[in-house]
Amino acid sequence: MEEPIKSFEEFYPFYLKQHSNKICRLLHVIGTTIVLSLAFTALYHNMPKLWIMVPIAGYGFAWVGHFFFEKNKPATFKYPLWSLKSDFKMYFDILSGKLSLDSSKE
Predict the structure, then answer these.
(1) CA gap 32, 46 in Å, rounded
(2) Please, what is the angle between helix 22-44 and helix 53-64, to 10°?
(3) What's the Cα-to-Cα distance from 70 to each of 18, 23, 48, 53, 62, rounded to whole Å?
(4) Sequence-ordered alpha helix ranges (H) in 1-106
(5) Domain layout of the chain by residue ranges
(6) Does residue 91 contact residue 62 with C-beta atoms inside 8 Å?
(7) Which residue has better confidence, 106 or 4?
(8) Confidence check: pLDDT of 106 > 80
(9) pTM for the whole thing?
(10) CA–CA dist 64, 104 (Å, integer)
(11) Does residue 14 contact residue 5 with C-beta atoms inside 8 Å?
């Protein structure tokens, strides 16, 4: 039996290993971009019904990436808050060039 991860600093490298497929990473980037766009639009235009679409867009793209490309179980099932934080960290790390979509280049 695996020992539970005890810190975010320990979790994030695990999270990146669970997201080594470039299509999975791309789907996460697409989903997170849609999530941020929906959240901004919902707030700016005062459209509360759009908030319903936020988890559908985020998890929809991510889970397709995991089930069809990574072929693993999303980390969010076991570590939901660290997974959410890691998703945004990975997103901004990819956009800033700190990470590549292709994990073999890291």
Answers:
(1) 20
(2) 170
(3) 7, 8, 33, 24, 10
(4) 8-17, 22-44, 53-64, 80-96
(5) 8-105
(6) no
(7) 4
(8) no
(9) 0.92
(10) 21
(11) yes
User: What are the residues whose beta carbons fall under 8 Å from the beta carbon of 98, sequence distance 6 or more?
Assistant: none
1 pLDDT exceeds 70?
no
Amino acid 80 reads: P
Q: What is the pLDDT of residues 12-69, one digit of tens each?
A: 999 999 999 999 999 999 999 999 999 999 999 999 999 999 999 999 999 999 999 9
Residue 79 to residues 13, 35, 73, 83, 87, Cα–Cα distance (Å): 14, 20, 12, 6, 12
The confidence score (pLDDT) of residue 60 equals: 96
Q: State the sign of the Cα–Cα–Cα–Cα dihedral 90, 72, 62, 20.
A: positive
Tokens of 41: 């639009």
Residues 6+ apart with CB under 8 A from 63: 74
* Structural tokens at position 34: 């849609």
Q: Which two tokens stand for residue 84?
A: 């959410």
Q: Which two tokens stand for residue 53?
A: 């679409």
